[in-house]
């Protein structure tokens, strides 16, 4: 085995060891505990179980389609258009993705009182438009506009040039974004719980019901096994599709793709504006709801709610959120960037090993937060570090999906040329990979950070009562009776949005500065 192969294997061990200790072990422990009690076959052969599977897959596929269609115009504007207020646009796109699911569920129930499948699909798509816009836009920004212009000069229509030149180039990013969105929608918890009620349930909400309310651990374990198997199947299909479509794009630092829109491009800008307005409607509704009783909810954030619902003042939970998100992002960047480097350097002869690592990194997105949370408590106990670890599991795949398409698109000849001129591997990484992927690295860190700020699923099971994060505090306030608790919950949601906006603004400034240095 060559020194290069040994080096890649050593790098791959870092994320694999992390996944083994902080994902595979806890999940296997909780599944083993449930499977030992028997009754699994009855659950798997039940018609009700397969109805749950059908609804889970159906609503996730519909929400993914809506998110991709809505996110593409935003991705184009982010990647190709030089317009005033682009920094604000990036902030507004991210805000919906980091809102607590329970609060978004309430917002959509207010907009669509009848609830049902439509509200579930729209709410899940609302969350995930940012995934499509940021992931696809990140790669689209690196594609050379001159190839598209050459196709137009040869007589191709704008649509023909897009489908024959641009779409094949960005297809890997679209596939990656769609896979992540599908997993998020298939494992959506708070949205389905709030909008589906007793009529519509997914595997995720059924696992929660059986674990927490019915104490049916064997049934929950059986459904978890089924969920993991379905997730693995989706990931393998996605990996095969990416392998068939992915090509090198020969990225260059000198290519500037953003410019003022011309001609038909304004129609895409108008579509992006309509999507943005649609994203802001629930957000504006939340702000209005938080002020329906004046500013009492905001003033009460200095306290602990009716009958001391929270063990600490609500404002203290902001510090907990910032601290946990910082730790989770640092850990996830180390794991995600290392994994992306390994996957981008895997040669054709070892693509199966690379795809296995890619699938392993994505699996945590598709495993029930209930399963992960209880697995942590069984294997690791009540440790303060559990929250950052769980958040890192969630955001590491997002970092990989953001950085990997760009690293794979770098022309290998640039690395070879740098090596021929005497650069060692570290300098090649700094002068070539980092220079071309620097924007994506900063974007990935920022995206991961704001996602960690709003993470609710796993955190709700692991955060200690005396150290809740802000989303967990919101969930507790909403679940308890009392007008003041309700007012505080909506005020805290607005506070979370403000903290998120501030974080994204700072990251956007850093990203712009970093890009200017390359």
Automatic annotation (TrEMBL):
<dbReference type="InterPro" id="IPR035906">
    <property type="entry name" value="MetI-like_sf"/>
</dbReference>
<feature type="transmembrane region" description="Helical">
    <location>
        <begin position="488"/>
        <end position="507"/>
    </location>
</feature>
<feature type="domain" description="ABC transmembrane type-1">
    <location>
        <begin position="53"/>
        <end position="238"/>
    </location>
</feature>
<feature type="transmembrane region" description="Helical">
    <location>
        <begin position="53"/>
        <end position="79"/>
    </location>
</feature>
<keyword id="KW-0813">Transport</keyword>
<keyword id="KW-0812">Transmembrane</keyword>
<comment type="similarity">
    <text>Belongs to the binding-protein-dependent transport system permease family.</text>
</comment>
<feature type="transmembrane region" description="Helical">
    <location>
        <begin position="359"/>
        <end position="379"/>
    </location>
</feature>
<feature type="transmembrane region" description="Helical">
    <location>
        <begin position="440"/>
        <end position="463"/>
    </location>
</feature>
<feature type="transmembrane region" description="Helical">
    <location>
        <begin position="385"/>
        <end position="407"/>
    </location>
</feature>
<feature type="transmembrane region" description="Helical">
    <location>
        <begin position="328"/>
        <end position="347"/>
    </location>
</feature>
<dbReference type="GO" id="GO:0005886">
    <property type="term" value="C:plasma membrane"/>
</dbReference>
<dbReference type="Pfam" id="PF00528">
    <property type="entry name" value="BPD_transp_1"/>
</dbReference>
<keyword id="KW-1133">Transmembrane helix</keyword>
<keyword id="KW-0472">Membrane</keyword>
<dbReference type="InterPro" id="IPR000515">
    <property type="entry name" value="MetI-like"/>
</dbReference>
<feature type="transmembrane region" description="Helical">
    <location>
        <begin position="91"/>
        <end position="111"/>
    </location>
</feature>
<keyword id="KW-0997">Cell inner membrane</keyword>
<keyword id="KW-1003">Cell membrane</keyword>
<feature type="transmembrane region" description="Helical">
    <location>
        <begin position="162"/>
        <end position="195"/>
    </location>
</feature>
<feature type="domain" description="ABC transmembrane type-1">
    <location>
        <begin position="318"/>
        <end position="507"/>
    </location>
</feature>
<feature type="transmembrane region" description="Helical">
    <location>
        <begin position="215"/>
        <end position="241"/>
    </location>
</feature>
<dbReference type="GO" id="GO:0055085">
    <property type="term" value="P:transmembrane transport"/>
</dbReference>
<feature type="transmembrane region" description="Helical">
    <location>
        <begin position="262"/>
        <end position="288"/>
    </location>
</feature>
<feature type="transmembrane region" description="Helical">
    <location>
        <begin position="117"/>
        <end position="141"/>
    </location>
</feature>
<protein>
    <submittedName>
        <fullName>ABC transporter inner membrane protein</fullName>
    </submittedName>
</protein>
